[in-house]
Amino acid sequence: MAFKDIVNQKKAKEIIIGQLKSGRIPHAYLFLGPEGVGRRKTALELAKSLNCQKNAGSQSGYHEPCDHCLSCQKINSGMHPDVQTIDFAWQAQLENKEVEKQKTIKIDTIRALQHEVSLKPVEGKWKIFLIEPADKITIEAANCLLKTLEEPPSWTMIILLAKHKENLPVTIVSRAQIVFFSPLSEHEITKFLVSHNSLNEARALEIAKGAEGSLSWALARMNEKAISVDDIWPRVRKERLSTAELLSCSQQYAKNAAEFLDELLSQMRADFRAHPQCAGDAIEAVIASQKLLTRNVNPQMVLDVLFCQLNKQAGTR
Ligand SMILES: [Zn+2]
């Protein structure tokens, strides 16, 4: 991984690399943008640049992180003692509570962060803290954090990751270097999925259309396991499948579409006596899909249409 591997975000990378080269490195950054567009990856590349052992020994100015030294490797694997993410998981551990119950970043969490900030780095030159989601910080926690942003120890860098700056107090925003991250275009996501994941272009575009600019979302959809054949009918009889589930199902079962439709049909027929109304409509839809397959219509398209129909019917059952 390197800065160049972060898709798009040319302006963001230019600002950060420019500051690294000039040596005028701010102690606080605010990375603004939607989820899944590279904010976190960029923050980690920045952390690697600051602590890379190869860079530390270099006399000829800034170089990209080497990705091989112990420091770079530890950051890549999330094991570097001087690079910490302050998020809901970290807070849950502090409070000894479930992550799901965390809705805001609280003042006690910022106090714990301040204790960490006050300690010198263990291995690297810099201590880097990522706060995410920074726009979920409470007002009192933000006021507490302000003290650290005003007088940070020389070895500290705090990177706030947030979607919108409007959700953060102006006092915090004004003390950080703002870097904007933009959503990726459908074309950029499609290109990435095709070149890095050998997906066919039509499929990649389909996923990209649902991604709303988020590459992480698109990659997660690609790797998502489809619902098992046995579970599809019991699920879709009661509720709609999400767009992601719908995409992964039609992608996975397109390879053996005929067998898949046979299996689905036999489940529906077995269910017909108990639920004649809803199974009846669904059976008709599957039979229509089987006919399309015999006419050599693209299997994935057939399944896409079928799942959309089943979803539509699910809303009326
Ligand atoms: Zn390195």
Shape, principal axes of CA atoms: elongated
- Tell me the number of helical segments per DSSP (H or I, 4 or more residues long): 16
Q: Roughly what percent helix?
A: 55-70%
Strand order of the largest sheet: 2-3-4-1-5
Count of spatially separate domains: 2
Kindly provide the name of the CATH class of the largest domain: Alpha Beta
What is the strand tally?
A: 5
Distance between the termini: 48 Å
Ligands (ions, cofactors included): zinc ion
Rg, nearest Å: 25 Å
Question: How big a fraction of the residues is strand?
Answer: 5-15%
Helices and strands, in order, run as: HEHHHEHHEHEHEHHHHHHHH
Report the mean per-residue pLDDT as an integer: 88
Q: Could you say what the CATH topology of the largest domain is called? A: Rossmann fold
**Superfamily at the CATH H level of the largest domain?**
P-loop containing nucleotide triphosphate hydrolases
Instruction: Give the biggest sheet.
Output: 5 strands, parallel
CATH architecture descriptor name of the largest domain? 3-Layer(aba) Sandwich
What is the SS-derived class?
Answer: alpha/beta
Q: Which stretches are poorly predicted, pLDDT < 50 over at least 5 residues? A: none
Report on this model:
- The chain is α/β, with parallel strands linked by helices.
- It folds into 2 domains: 3-180, Rossmann fold, CATH 3.40.50; 224-314.
- Helix content is 56%, strand content 8%.
- The protein has helices at residues 10-22, 39-51, 53-57, 70-76, 88-95, 107-118, 139-150, 170-173, 186-197, 201-210, 215-223, 229-238, 243-253, 257-271, 276-294, 299-314; strands at residues 28-32, 83-86, 127-131, 156-162, 177-180.
- Strands 2-3-4-1-5 form a 5-stranded parallel beta sheet, with helices on both faces.
- The longest helix is centred in the last third of the chain and has 19 residues, at 276-294.
- The chain is elongated, with a radius of gyration of 25 Å.
- The relative contact order is 0.11.
- The mean pLDDT is 88.
- The structure holds zinc ion (ZN).
- Zinc ion binds at residues 52-54, 65-66, 69, 71-72.
